[in-house]
Amino acid sequence: MALGMLLKRAFKFPAWCVPAICFNNTTALPLLLIQALDTAGILTNLTMSESDTPSAALSRAKSYFLVSSMVGNSLTFALGPRLLDDEEAPDKPDENSKPSHTHSSTESDEEYAHPTNSAGRTAEEEEEYSNETSTLLPRSVARSRSTAAKKSKKEWKKIPIKIRNVISTLYSFINAPLLGALIGSLLGLTPPLHRIFFASPSSGGIFKAWLTTSLKNIGELFAALQLVVVGAKLSSSLLRMKKGESSGKVSSLVVLTICFIRFILWPIISIGVIYLIASHTGWLDNDPTLWFVLMLMPTGPSATKLTALADVSGADEEENMAIAKFITVAYAISPLICFAVVGSLKASLAIKG
């Protein structure tokens, strides 16, 4: 994160380069990679003892990667919106400057009689306007909610700014990935709940067939849907390029720098650090699979969640297109991860002896 902020400030990199450096693909790509290694018989070399099996090593590796995914997703949606902020807000208007009177008195009277918002709509027109964020509740309920929101915002502003910042930071970590992980832990670690949610229907799993399986299928669609979103944004960008319109500029220096960090620098650092810790301390368990996974965790292309993060943060269309272009390039060169895989495997075997 510090490296990304340095590049952003010193070399004027775009704001999205910071989360691109911080967060990589921690779910789909690592799980597919570890399954491919198991098929190739490589995990046989990473067993703890003769009684250990490659299937047990595969199960442990998946568990390690899923824990990493939970932490990564929580941090992505907690810190990501702050990292995407450009921090270069426009200058505030001079309060001492006098307003210009270039408009005629008739136009001014009309403006004051029918004020408009930033979209150019009056209050009456705004009530009739509908978009994807328009409420479906009755107008009376929507107005009461708006009144309650205004009152709570007024009370919120009475809290000292330092306390507000602390509360906002803590609240940002209460996001969907973290809540999902906590609920999953509760269901998995509580025997009665584990039985009714995950056991077979014949063994008392009353929710397994219709609820657990459905939620699992929906969750597995997330990674694929993110790639569909990236493809749609990339297609829109290419169409705008053909028309000669602005389509989100991505500097080659930005792409090369981020890819160097993600595919070369992070693997070198992670392999070196984990090798020293595992071989000279007792901080880690005597599990070659754990060492191998820890060495690989920071390696790989940036997360496709960057597109979802940009949408959540309210990024403009050009920035979304630029992110889509970068993600396409990053995944096109993702086979470079093979060097990190070989290095991690050799280092783990060297520690194992």
UniProtKB/TrEMBL annotation:
UniProt keyword terms in alphabetical order: Membrane, Transmembrane, Transmembrane helix
InterPro entries linked: Mem_transp_PIN-like
UniProt topology in membrane: Multi-pass membrane protein
Pfam families in the record: Mem_trans
Disordered: annotated segments: 84-149
Chief subcellular location: membrane
Compartment(s): Membrane
Signal peptide: none
Parts of the chain that traverse the membrane: 166-189, 209-232, 253-278, 322-345
GO BP: any one term: transmembrane transport
GO annotation, cellular component aspect: endoplasmic reticulum; membrane
Full protein name: Auxin efflux carrier
Source organism: Botryotinia narcissicola
